[in-house]
Design brief:
Layout lengths: L1 E5 L4 H13 L4 E5 L2 E4 L5 H13 L3 E3 L2 H18 L9 H9 L3 H12 L3 H19 L4 H7 L5 H12 L3 H6 L12
Helix pairs in contact: 3-4, 3-5, 3-6, 6-8
């Protein structure tokens, strides 16, 4: 049985979900970002207990099909931007259409209607947070970061970074207290 969980965006979230499932004596096959597959069919009582346990960890069990699809869109973007070490070399619209088996126009319209923002804006916000992270790690220079994040040039990355943060990447790097957002807050 598959369950879909909102705000599940990190390894720590996966551990919290596994703990809640274990408490209820449920056996998981896969625990992935936003999605869990368990061996059993859960009862209404177990579902309510799981819902409460997840809420205590800042997570939410999803029932609505549209909410589930929005969650899948977000998780696919988060996975690609934050958890892929390979350079992003694919068009996000093609990636989402293929991964979620839906026409991109449908996904984009649904996302905008429910979230009040576009998929493109959501992707840009996550790319900027990932760029901040890469700048803080100081393992790559700005040219390498631009290549890794699939920007056409350093100038394009710098312009988008400045537009979103108000700072140039080099000014951000020089700051003593670097402000980053948690993935689930983007």
């Amino acid at each position: 049985m598959k369950l879909f969980i909102k705000y599940m965006v990190s390894s720590r979230c996966k551990m919290a979900v596994k703990d809640e499932l274990k408490k209820l004596g449920l056996h998981f096959i896969v625990v992935d970002l936003g999605e869990v597959e368990i061996m059993e069919t859960i009862s209404t009582e177990q579902r309510e207990e799981l819902k409460i346990g997840l809420l205590n960890s800042g997570l939410e069990l999803m029932d609505d099909k549209r909410a589930v699809l929005i969650g899948k869109i977000k998780n696919a973007i988060i996975e690609m931007v934050h958890y892929t070490d390979e350079p992003i070399k694919v068009n996000f619209s093609d990636y989402l259409s293929e991964k979620l088996n839906h026409d991109y126009t449908y996904l984009a319209n649904l996302f905008s209607e429910v979230q009040g923002t576009t998929i493109e804006h959501f992707i840009i916000n996550h790319k900027i947070e990932r760029i901040k992270e890469l700048i803080i790690y100081d393992e790559l220079n700005i040219t390498e970061i631009a290549w890794k994040m699939n920007y056409s040039s350093v100038a394009h990355l710098s312009n988008q970074f400045k537009k979103m943060t108000g700072l140039s990447p080099s000014h951000f790097k020089q700051m003593k207290s670097k402000q980053r957002n948690q993935i689930e807050d983007i």
